[in-house]
Amino acid sequence: MVYLAAGALIFPLVKDFYASKAMPSLGQLFVTQLLRGQLYVAIVIPLIRRMSGRRREAAVVIGSCFAVLGGLAPLLYSNDFMPASIRLVHAVEAGVSNFLYGVIVAYLLVTYTREQQSPTRPESAPIVV
After folding, report:
1. φ, ψ for residue 68 (rounded to 5)?
2. How many other CB atoms are there within 10 angstroms of residue 83's CB atom?
3. Which of 52, 54, 57, 82 could in theory staple to 111 by disulfide, Cβ–Cβ 3.0 to 4.6 A?
4. Is 63:100 a contact under the CB 8 Å cutoff?
């Protein structure tokens, strides 16, 4: 869903470039993104298990990993298929949408426990004034 929304937002900026290109169907895009999303989650499962109780930190880490590795890195190098101006637009699109996807994954999969979030002072501890 994040992928489609990001694509819809940048479409006016890239529609001329893609006007003469054959595009995959919406069904093909959906299947591809579903599989890609599951692969991303499978890759970060070990990290998610270690970050139990720390949703905010996990959201930043996982979002950043997804944004850089899945969004920005593939678009850094010049290629014959896409001019720099289109790659820049797609880098912003993919970076932001992948970051948001990582944040969503973290909030859904990282186990939240109140004890791990904020340690409390034992009641028997003296209060220093």
Report:
1. -75, -55
2. 11
3. 52
4. yes
| Neighbour tally for 62: CB within 10 Å | 28
d(CA 101, CA 67): 9
Residue with token string 């590795």: 69
Calculate Rg over the CA atoms of the chain: 20
* Predicted local distance difference test score (pLDDT) of residue 124: 52
Closest to 52 (Cα-Cα) out of 127, 125, 126, 114? 114
Structure tokens at 14: 């890239």
**pLDDT less than 50: residues of the chain:** 115-117, 121, 129
Asked if 27 and 35 touch (Cβ cutoff 8 Å), the reply is no
* Rounded (10°) CA dihedral 25, 29, 34, 36: 140
List the domain boundaries for the chain.
Answer: 1-9+41-112
pLDDT of residue 110: 86
Provide the pLDDT for residue 99. 95
- CB-CB neighbours of 88 under 10 Å: 13
Decide: pTM greater than 0.85: no
